[in-house]
Write a structure and sequence with these properties.
This protein is of the alpha/beta class. It has two domains: 193 residues, Rossmann fold (3-Layer(aba) Sandwich), CATH 3.40.50; 67 residues, no CATH class. The chain is built from twelve helices and eleven strands. It has a four-stranded parallel beta sheet with strand order 3-4-5-9, sandwiched between helices. It has a three-stranded mixed beta sheet with strand order 6-8-10. A two-stranded parallel sheet has the order 1-2. The chain starts with a helix and ends in a 7-residue tail after the last helix. It comes from Pseudonocardia adelaidensis. This is SDR family oxidoreductase. It holds the Pfam family Epimerase. InterPro entries: Epimerase_deHydtase, NAD(P)-bd_dom_sf, NAD(P)-dependent_oxidoreduct.
């Protein structure tokens, strides 16, 4: 949001609580109250906008079916409101869903998403939005790296850090050679803004700065900061210990951003993932 405001876009942020609304205002944006389940409120918010950036997800890992239903309903609602307008819809997807597991090469923007249909992860949002390109919606999926890192990041690395402090070690699976792509939060925000401003309809963008960091390197860097050891565990063990996120600890999901860089002229400028870990941003996650 700050990236858009700082580049002279007038922004309205959807906020479901007083606390969220205060954050939106602090960033210099207007507030529209509502949430992903309030589809009527979303329709009202879309009446006078030139573009939509949709990053929201319930992240209810205890009820994935409901999570995916809500995700799909939100994309359908937004897309229907934009039909025939050629207005941009920039929405979040994931590089981990691109291509096929075990490809042996980084996934590219040309690899299709495996998330298809109502019962798929995140409700198949990427493919659903792309279905609206022929109906006059400038849909632009942005597939985020597995780690979108930086100070204040509450996601995968922060969750692994919390689990590590609880268990007294940072887990990795097998020899830890599986790779995670990564991007700093500021660099990812620039991908979103540049995509909104210039990417053609149907363009898939990979928000990726580092194609693939061996997860053992991540675990050892985090262990050094936390004063614990890095420990090899089984995929089944960590999947049970860390719901949802645990299954990604074993994932080998490198991703390229060469196509996005050529389309947008983007190059990363933020810190690397290991630099952010070394800076202590995940010590008290």
């Amino acid at each position: 949001m700050a990236e858009l405001v700082d580049n002279d876009h007038e922004v309205t942020g959807l906020a479901r609580s007083d606390e969220s609304a205060a954050v939106v205002r602090k960033l210099g944006a207007a507030v529209h109250r509502g949430d992903l389940d309030d589809l009527d409120s979303i329709r009202v918010a879309l009446e006078n906008v030139d573009a939509v950036v949709h990053l929201a997800n319930k992240h209810d890992w205890s009820n994935p079916a409901e999570n995916d239903r809500a995700a799909r309903a939100a994309v359908e609602t937004i897309s229907e409101a934009l039909v025939g307008s050629d207005r941009p819809l920039v929405l979040a997807s994931a590089t981990a869903l691109a291509g096929q597991p075990g490809m042996g090469r980084p996934a590219t923007e040309d690899d299709p998403s495996r998330a298809v249909g109502r019962a798929s992860l995140r409700g198949g949002e990427e493919n659903l939005a792309l279905d609206y390109v022929d109906r006059g919606v400038r849909a632009i999926p942005v597939r985020f790296a597995t780690s979108v890192h930086g100070e204040g990041d509450p996601n995968f690395i922060a969750i692994v850090s919390r689990a590590a402090r609880r268990r007294g070690s940072v887990p990795y699976v097998g020899d830890g050679a599986n790779r995670w792509p990564a991007v700093h939060r500021s660099d990812a925000a620039r991908v979103l803004r540049l995509g909104l401003e210039s990417a053609p309809a149907g363009t898939i963008l990979h928000a990726v700065a580092e194609e693939g960091i061996a997860f053992r390197e991540i675990a050892e860097a985090l262990a050094a900061r936390l004063g614990v050891r890095a420990e090899s565990v089984t995929a089944e063990q960590i999947a049970d210990e860390i719901p949802f996120v645990g299954r990604f600890v074993a994932a080998d999901c490198p991703a390229s951003s060469a196509i996005m860089r050529a389309v947008l002229g983007w190059e990363p400028t933020g810190p690397t993932l290991l630099e952010d870990i070394a800076a202590g941003h995940y010590d008290q996650a």
